[in-house]
Design a protein that fits this description.
single chain; 222 residues; alpha+beta; OB fold (Dihydrolipoamide Acetyltransferase, E2P); Alpha-Beta Plaits; 2 domains; 9-stranded mixed sheet; 6 helices; 13 strands; 36% helix; disordered N terminus
């Protein structure tokens, strides 16, 4: 009798352990599911070390927010992950971002967002310029041939020639330091180029690769 009672107690104990483990797992799963993933649009106003401050321009998010870039935060530009340094350089050109997070918002000033998982730059095809620099040894006839080759590439909407003198004038007018430096130079060190726009951004890497493969193209940036 005692042996049977002991076996019964052990069985009941094992059942209780299984139930408790099941409840713990269920709580953990429900806890993970309760972390709502939220995305809002914003403009970046400051990047200091790993801290980004933004102004939200979303109907559900109004005001100033800040958050930390961690190892779990992806920074996305044109479908690719980039560094925080690259992002810092880009905000002088583009400033429409989507911020995705799954943490809490602390009521501080500015409000602090926890667990930001993604910062994505939102761009349209008209926002993105591909700049193809031409080798300085190329003459005017060859430049026209290169332009025609670029125009034949699928998904390209426009190709505009920009001379090294135009670059020099633009840079001199935009910055006094550039103007002073160019004043000391006897020759213009810049290169002629093509400013290229696309119909869409689906295959931008492939397009850049094709442009880079054209004879007379020195380098391509975007």
């Amino acid at each position: 009798m005692k042996k049977e009672l002991k076996i019964l107690c052990i069985s009941i104990g094992m059942v209780l352990i299984v139930i408790i483990i099941g409840l713990v797992i269920s709580l953990l799963i429900n806890k993970d599911d309760s972390l709502e993933i939220t995305t809002f649009e914003a403009t970046i106003t400051d990047i200091t070390n790993q801290i980004i401050t933004v102004n939200a321009n979303d109907a559900n998010f109004i005001g100033e927010y800040s958050f930390e870039i961690t190892d779990d935060t992806s920074i996305i530009y044109l479908g690719k992950e980039i560094s925080l340094t690259h992002l810092t350089n880009l905000i002088s050109i583009y400033n429409n971002f989507e911020i995705t997070f799954s943490g809490e918002i602390k009521e501080t000033s500015p409000a602090q967002i926890e667990n930001v998982t993604k910062v994505e730059l939102v761009v349209s095809p008209s926002d993105v310029n591909i700049v193809a620099y031409i080798n300085n040894s190329v003459d005017s006839e060859e430049i026209q041939v290169i332009k025609e080759k670029i125009e034949k590439i699928e998904n390209i909407s426009s190709v505009t020639f920009k001379s090294r003198d135009e670059w020099r004038k633009e840079m001199s007018e935009s910055n006094d330091i550039f103007n002073e430096v160019f004043g000391y130079l006897e020759e213009n060190p810049l290169s002629d180029s093509f400013i290229i726009n696309l119909d869409n951004l689906d295959n931008i890497d492939e397009i850049v690769s094709q442009i880079e493969g054209i004879d007379g193209i020195e380098s391509v940036i975007y």
